[in-house]
Amino acid sequence: MGWSFKIGRVFGIDLKVHLTFLLILVWGALNYGGSAGWGYGLLVTLALFTLVILHELGHSLAAKWYGIPVKDIILLPIGGVARLERMPDKPIQELVVAIAGPLVNVVLAVMLLPVVVVTGAMQPGAFTMTRAMEPGLFGLATFLLLANVSLVIFNMIPAFPLDGGRVFRAGLALFTDYARATRWAVIVGRLAAIGMGIFAIVTGQIFLALIAFFIFIAGGQEGEAAQARSLLRRVQASQALSTNHVALAPTATIGQVASMMLTAPQGNFAVLDPADGKLLGVATSGSIAGAMQRGEWHRRITEVMHHAASIPTIALTATLDEAQDKLSGASTQVVAVFDGLHFKGLITANDIYRIFRFLARSGYIPQPARA
């Protein structure tokens, strides 16, 4: 995500902060300081977002348990986001990953409760909420206890894509297909977001209104992504391969490839070893165009290609949603398809988008390719 910078790494997961998060630090320092000043307010804000990080780590470690890579955790003014390479495919896995975050907050609340009780008993006079929120150890422990309880309650609202919405979708997916469960989760989530937004406007809570807007938009976007995956899951890589793509020998020059591009609608070329057909690399349209602009017409294609080791690979029987997952973390927008050890062709991000558009418009449901 742009405008973010790395602040650390925990359990192999990068922790990042979005630049706009600095605004919430200033706001927290001024609003939570009370009589103790901005320094205490900053401490309270950092402690609050430490809870958020631990919450997101709960999601992330549960995802890694199921073999799902985690890109990073990013702190934003509205909270934290654990970015997974993909969402769990099985409903029970999504249920576990979704509930792992709030469960961390439940554990933290249980741990903080005796601290609040002990430090509260040491305070003179009767207990009141006003005194409980005053600066100091008792006030900080009470604030964090209530923050954990609030995080659990808020995140378990069945408003997709909040944790409660994901739990709701996972529960529905146990009894119906994933696409239908997602549609219902998005509908319920958007209704909840509208209700939250109306409440926020009536009560003058601008921050809550922004969160409601985020839930409404993000839920719809993720719902569309889930629908796309359900379509792409119906197409195997073997069905998406072009039958007339030209492969290059390692001796080909930029000038020769440029001539091919004038007559053939092909932007990416596999470079194969002529002796055994082994994939050596891929020359992309971007790398070829760059060499052409520099006037390197006699330069060999092997000097500008992306080497095979850097190209993600999938099996011939893999589905296009798997190819899309591979491309999401790749440096090139092309994936190599293999049948065992034998190279079969290339699939690009444009190929996947073209097939998705066709399926979405036509309503055609392809049958798996026959062996």
Question: Any key phrases for this structure?
Answer:
alpha+beta, 371 residues, four-stranded mixed sheet
What report would you give on this structure?
The chain is of the alpha+beta class. Helix content is 55%, strand content 14%. It has helices at residues 21-31, 38-65, 91-121, 129-132, 137-155, 163-173, 178-203, 206-232, 237-240, 254-263, 285-293, 320-328, 349-362, and strands spanning 4-10, 13-18, 70-76, 79-84, 269-272, 279-283, 306-307, 313-315, 334-339, 342-348. The strands form 3 sheets. It has a 4-stranded mixed sheet with strand order 1-2-3-4, covered by helices on one side. A 3-stranded antiparallel sheet has the order 5-6-7. Strands 8-9-10 form a 3-stranded mixed sheet. Strand 3 (70-76) and strand 4 (79-84) form a beta hairpin. Helix 2 crosses helix 5 (137-155) and helix 3 (91-121) packs antiparallel against helix 5 (137-155). The protein starts with a strand and ends in a 9-residue tail after the last helix.
Give the helices and strands, then pairings.
Blueprint: E1 4-10, E2 13-18, H1 21-31, H2 38-65, E3 70-76, E4 79-84, H3 91-121, H4 129-132, H5 137-155, H6 163-173, H7 178-203, H8 206-232, H9 237-240, H10 254-263, E5 269-272, E6 279-283, H11 285-293, E7 306-307, E8 313-315, H12 320-328, E9 334-339, E10 342-348, H13 349-362
Helix pairs in contact: 1-2, 2-3, 2-5, 3-5, 3-6, 6-7, 7-8, 10-11
